[in-house]
Amino acid sequence: MTGTSVFISYRRSDSSSATGRIADRLKARFGENRIFFDVDTIPLGIDFRSYVGERLDKTDVFLVVIGDDWLEAKDEEGQRRIDAPSDNVHIEVAAALAREEVPVIPVLVGQATAPPSEERLPDPLRGLATRNAIPLRSDTTFEGQMERLIEYIESLSEERHAEQHPVAQEREKQAPVAAPEQATGKGMGMGAIGIGLALLLVLAIAASQLIGGGADLVTVPDVVGDSVPVATALLEDDGFEVDWDFEGERALEDVTVLETDPGAGEDVEEGTWVMLHTDAE
Q: How far apart are CA 25 and CA 157, in angstroms?
């Protein structure tokens, strides 16, 4: 389905290759801009904790890839990296577990058979021990398990979007269904007219696509409440050009987006300019 957003947390020294393979399959299904899995994509100068929090606010599913060395990876002083509050993996997983609305799924690669037990995890991460996990091995079972994971992600995303947009869901359920016309002369005549109009509509759409070059439409993401750098990164990831109409001495990361033009949810051509209206105007 479109619009599904997946956050992948992993440790490079532990599962870089396996995570890359997983990310490629998810990008192929959901789109490259919907998969966040590498700190290299974070804009320069942005606070990592804040950025992770803002990405999680827009995440449907959080995957934490656990391999053989995920828990016991050491820093330069010989201490477990996962125990340090400043460790990127620690920050990501703790922030995800703190959000009840975001499903956290451990993905087991290499020889990992289960998430670490509670007593082996730092306090903010102990909830990970009881999360149901899925194994993804680099053998003949990979494709089948990967497809199972994708289908589960799609079902979770559909449930979350239904909860966030109950009015739209209710309207779809209550939409009246037109009664079939009886096969009378008048009914058949009206049916023929309807078919003719439908054909004209199809031809008109086809003609407009030929004239307009068949440009793909993309949906403007909701960046209201984000800082300008984060909003810019999200919009540019989706193929938009970005500008803002304020001048001042405030640092961009301290400026919050109040509104966008075009607005969130509008379908526009890829490459459209999006103006950010902020609290610094």
A: 17
